[in-house]
Amino acid sequence: MKKRQLCLLLALAMAGSATPVFGGQVSYVLETPLSYDVTKDVKHIDGTLFLTLDALMESFPTTTFTKEEKTLSIENSSRRLTYTLSDGRLELYTKGGQETTEQPAAKAAVVENGITYYPLRDLMEAMDYTVGYSVESSGGHVTYLVPVEQGKTVQQQKNLYAPFYLALINGLSNQENETLSPYGLLHVMAMLASGAQGETRTELLDAVGATSVYELEQYITNYEEYVRQMRTSKWGTVQMTDALVYQTGGGVERTILPAYADYLTNTYEASIFGIDQPDAFDDWLAEKTKGRITESGFAENFENFDVSFTSTLLLDLPWEEKFDVEDTQEGTFYQADGTKVTVPFLTKTMQKAEYYQGNGKEAVILPYQTQAGKFSMVLVTGTEPLTQEEFQQITEEAANRCIALKLPKWKTENHVDLKEKMKQMGVTAAFCDEADFSLISDTPLSLSCLLQSVAIDVNEEGTTAAAFTQATVYRSMVEDVVDVTFDHPFTFFILEETSGQVLFAGKWNQAQ
Description:
Layout: H1 11-14, E1 25-31, E2 36-37, E3 42-45, E4 48-52, H2 53-59, E5 64-67, E6 71-75, E7 79-84, E8 90-94, E9 100-103, E10 110-112, E11 115-119, H3 120-126, E12 130-131, E13 134-138, E14 141-149, H4 162-170, E15 178-180, H5 182-194, H6 198-208, H7 213-230, E16 237-247, H8 258-268, E17 271-275, H9 278-288, E18 305-318, E19 329-334, E20 340-358, E21 361-367, E22 375-381, H10 388-397, E23 399-408, E24 410-417, H11 419-424, E25 449-458, E26 462-474, E27 482-485, E28 490-496, E29 501-508
Parallel strand pairs: 1-14, 16-17, 23-27
Antiparallel strand pairs: 1-2, 3-4, 4-11, 5-6, 6-7, 7-8, 8-9, 10-11, 12-14, 13-14, 15-29, 16-18, 18-26, 19-20, 20-21, 20-23, 21-22, 22-28, 24-25, 25-26, 28-29
Helix pairs in contact: 5-6, 5-7
């Protein structure tokens, strides 16, 4: 994923003049998740960019702007800002119990020819966005790029979307084995939200728990720094690949708007390509998942296939402390349906594991050997729903113990229909004819299905897991040894601990 870098204000170009010092044609582009040319709505005065209200509203569609006679109110799900036009006074209310606080004054609004212009940087930085400038010059044409993004680190955003992950984990079957990739789904939801508007976008963001597309993008962008380093790790790999694929056969081809295509390419390093037969994509899918997943399912109804927003996630990591093959033992696993079966158990006294006990649960955290980030598998006894407090207690309070561990050796594949799960989480407009994905294409589209295929193999060496997510449109410390045996149904998730990112999660109820 390509992370946009903020640039410093270029003093020569921006200072001391109401217009740039460069000659020729000048344009201003605001680089929010979808770039907007706001040239006609800009005033450049003494190194400051002032925008009209219309330009602000278009560029920040998930933020509410309310204009009164003397003030402008700006609000999102976490902040509300009141700006006094005449003197630039700012009052900020941070939601969540904090009082209203007065901020350092902004520049006063500027009125010319009956049009009011507002100071971009002063207002948006008060709303917790980072605003920078850069200049691109080509011949007689000068472009001012104004990158706008939220300045959050991985640590600052840790567990930001834990409620979303937990809703998915808690919604898994308590009878059958079911595994999914919360992070794979998050990618697809982000791709969709960035191209949606109105109620469609609001529902997608609310389901994830994101306040804005910008917040979601920053979260994914920060985390992908680990993934980029893991691609060439000498121990293992974690690879995420996004794609937008559309049908080119049958004389009908979906038109993808250039601004949206550029956004996916630049932000998510997404591949965008057309196919005239399903095998073309299935070959690509098999390559990205190293043969773990080979069928997209597009062939079942390819004559009506239109476009699909897809994400693949491949994880292949060795345990930091491997199990010995000769120590693998047969043992009894008590299944969710009350029956019991004999299965192979990975068996080892672990020195590099963490243990948690509380709330009637036991949990073991097994670290993977990695080059970047802190990846691990979290195993939790039982399949009862986890609360956010329990999730954070397990991941933050687990301590080093010497653990005599017995863990089933397993390998499984499953397909999960996420459409109904997302509807239960409030996403309905995206699947209706009234869906608003107008930033993606100038031809109406609505989602037909939201599916995920997952394959996972847990053995003596480590874990290999792959996931394929598609949102598709069809026309029409050492102490006493603790014994922990996972011989009853249990919950697991693969976690990057620094960020709280959940890559895979599942419930193991039946031995296969």
